[in-house]
Specification:
single chain, about 80 residues, mainly alpha, elongated
């Protein structure tokens, strides 16, 4: 079954939430790749900044994932 904004409704259309979720995931992947490319010693400021960006991107990804799944479950009556 394909979810549509008409099925989910709410404050944000499902398409927008899905696009935000995919974008956040893509950004997390980019930041993880950049961290892997860091050649500085582990404790260096460059390595710490890269690791911090990974954590921030992962937090954004999880937030968007949760918003998407919450919207899908509350609007479809799932899991009540």
């Amino acid at each position: 079954m394909v979810m549509t904004s008409k099925m989910v409704g709410g404050d944000e259309p499902i398409e927008r939430l899905n696009a935000d979720y995919r974008g956040a995931f893509d950004e997390w992947v980019v930041q993880v790749s950049r961290l892997k490319e860091v050649t500085s010693p582990e404790g260096s400021s460059l390595a710490k900044e890269a690791a911090d960006r990974v954590v921030a991107a992962e937090n954004d990804y999880r937030l968007m994932r949760n918003r998407l799944t919450d919207s899908m479950s509350t609007k479809t009556g799932c899991c009540e």
